[in-house]
Amino acid sequence: MTSDRNSTGGVPVPVTPAGASSGAPAEHPPSSPAGRGMFGTHGSGDVSGFGGLVRQRQPIEEAPRPYGGYFDEVRDALEEAYPYFGDAIEKVVVDRGELTLHVRPERIAEVCQVMRDDLALRFELCSSVSGVDYLGADERRLHVVYQLTSMTYRRRVRLETAVSAEAPHLPSVTAVYPTADWQERETYDMFGIVFDGHPNLTRILMPDDWEGHPQRKDYPLGGVPVEYKGAEIPPPDRRRSYQ
Amino acid sequence: MTTSNYATERKTTEGKVFTVTGGDWDQVVSGTDPINDERIVVNMGPQHPSTHGVLRLILELEGETVREARSVVGYLHTGIEKNLEYRNWVQGSTFVTRMDYLSPLFNETAYSLAVEKLLGITDDITERATTIRVLMMELNRISSHLVWLATTGMELGAISIMLYGFREREYILDIFETITGLRMNHAYIRPGGVAQDVPDDAIVKIREFLKMMPKKLKEYEDLLSGQPIWVERTKHVAVLDVTGCLALGITGPVLRSAGLPWDLRKTMPYCGYETYSFDVPTHPDGDVWGRYQVRLAEIRESLKIVEQALDRLRPGPVMVADRKIAWPAQLAIGVDGMGNSLEHVAKIMGQSMESLIHHFKLVTEGFRVPPGQVYVGIESPRGELGVHAVSDGGTRPYRVHYREPSFVNLQALPAMAEGGLIADVIAGGASLDPVMGGCDR
């Protein structure tokens, strides 16, 4: 799977997979930048004129007080219990009845500790840890999302942190929530986000020798060769389809 | 022994090919002296009849005692979450249903609830659709618990219960086939409602099932509960208390078997579960026996809910009224299987150009979902099944993450197995009820 078939026709030149050093096993052309065009085609092939459309991403907006529901209580309790609140919390977002605290990555483990231990917060269960790659949004494109559940108060809160692809490091929360162990491994596996202090940060779903991190938005996708005069079905992000 | 972290590779005309071998296996084994040392390392799985699918366990044994246990997952990883990003929101149902193949309707419901929350149409879901979802989920919970009972029985040497469990499960799958057209992988519950209405003969079948099932449960209990071997192999085996469960994020029957009545249907209700009357069974001991008791009791509770749901079914639409979201399909069984009904196709084609365009746009392009993110958690047979869905405003999911209870719960295996006997690894692992399709996604 080399670059031969993509070197002409105004098609972008392939780059190495995100995080890869040798290119294999999935050395394929890069995916299109998210949010461009209407049909997913670029260069030649698109005569509709819609290929030049650029979808604007709405910036995440800080929610105004009061948030409503238990959200104010959670914020106030955290502010009271955690002395570095002003430094650690970048933004508070309330959307669709859910509270999201955007946390500075280096503070995430401390914030989790307070969220778990403070009597007014008591988020005993870390339901889920996962990543989202907001490619093209800003410098810190890799987000890690923690869903915390308070079994005592029956509340949910989302913590979100963002790191850059160049320095994808943040502290592991496994010391606070041992359940985050495998979930952080999965996030590392899929996004290449390194959780410092994790006891055993290895790949978990992909094979040990896999190169690249498949859930990144710039991870190259493979096309499917078909038995017709060397034709190939293009990778899904390069097919002509609605975006 | 390999020195590099990567497998050996060779160049071919197709590109680089890796030869993946046992990895550090030689290294692991060479650390032990088989003659003078009592410790041996045993590789159990990934192909082993007692590991519930392709789960690999690396056990360090001293005689029959397990000193260390590590589980290796990922053998069934199929990249479903990534695949979702290249299909439209409705097509997502057909993917997520294939994750945890023993509880497909839970995967679909969780996904649909998440998409509906993103769309802001949670309150528009019709009552009939919600009731059908509850009905289907509870039937699915019974079938999933039956498979648990069947396979666990088999793994502990009780073969008859395996046959019985699968026999009754087959009855439920028949009901599913009548309603959705398929025994598994239904893609029946979709964003906006359900794919089609419940036919009348399915109601008759479910009523029959409700009559039959309590007797069968009695039969299982007569067969197992007093059986000395079953008791011996499950009581005080693979104990995990509430503290351990919470630290490791264990939810579902395993948590309830330790005594904490945490059930999302009660504690954070969805789909109107707060209006149904049922109990959350618990057990004080936190052992395999407790999990067996809890699951059997849950089947009984599910039967109650199914009965209430049946009584509540009133005629009405099963899809939201918004024609920009409702999938414009009327499925029918034709000679070549299930597909769009010919009358419906004729209607679309014959009605008007606009209607045809609308149908075409909705099917090929799909609907747009306003940007944002949501997290929805529901109580699957294995614990909290969570969906974190992110939309960037397009017609396809930007990111969907499944918080799979099988994946999270499997982390408890070392805590349960270490220090116990190797035979109890099987009992403990089975009592977690991991489904590798869900775990690895």
Automatic annotation (TrEMBL), chain A:
Domain NADH:ubiquinone oxidoreductase 30kDa subunit: 101-223
Domain of life: Bacteria
Keyword field contains Translocase: yes
Chain residue ranges for the region called Disordered: 1-42, 215-243
Catalysed reactions listed for this entry: a quinone + NADH + 5 H(+)(in) = a quinol + NAD(+) + 4 H(+)(out)
EC number: 7.1.1.-
Keywords of the record: Cell membrane, Membrane, NAD, Oxidoreductase, Quinone, Translocase, Transport
Subcellular location: Cell membrane
Topology term for the membrane: Peripheral membrane protein
InterPro entries, per the entry: NADH_DH_suC, NADH_quin_OxRdtase_su_C/D-like, NADH_UbQ_OxRdtase_30kDa_su
Any one Gene Ontology cellular component term annotated for this protein: plasma membrane
Single annotated GO MF: NADH dehydrogenase (ubiquinone) activity
Described function: NDH-1 shuttles electrons from NADH, via FMN and iron-sulfur (Fe-S) centers, to quinones in the respiratory chain. The immediate electron acceptor for the enzyme in this species is believed to be a menaquinone. Couples the redox reaction to proton translocation (for every two electrons transferred, four hydrogen ions are translocated across the cytoplasmic membrane), and thus conserves the redox energy in a proton gradient.
Family according to the record: Belongs to the complex I 30 kDa subunit family.
Quaternary structure and interacting proteins, as annotated: NDH-1 is composed of 14 different subunits. Subunits NuoB, C, D, E, F, and G constitute the peripheral sector of the complex.
HAMAP family: NDH1_NuoC
Name of this protein: NADH-quinone oxidoreductase subunit C
Species this protein is from: Micromonospora carbonacea
TrEMBL record, chain B:
GO cellular component term of the entry, any: plasma membrane
Key words, A-Z: Cell membrane, Membrane, NAD, Oxidoreductase, Quinone, Translocase, Transmembrane, Transmembrane helix, Transport
Family annotation (Gene3D superfamilies): Cytochrome-c3 Hydrogenase, chain B (1.10.645.10)
SUPFAM superfamilies per UniProt: HydB/Nqo4-like
Signal peptide location: none
InterPro entries, A to Z: NADH_Q_OxRdtase_suD (IPR001135), NADH_UbQ_OxRdtase_49kDa_CS (IPR014029), NDH1_su_D/H (IPR022885), NiFe-Hase_large (IPR029014)
EC number in record: 7.1.1.-
Keyword Metal-binding on entry: no
Topology relative to the membrane: Peripheral membrane protein
Assembly notes: NDH-1 is composed of 14 different subunits. Subunits NuoB, C, D, E, F, and G constitute the peripheral sector of the complex.
HAMAP family: NDH1_NuoD
Protein's name according to its UniProt entry: NADH-quinone oxidoreductase subunit D
Gene that encodes it: nuoD
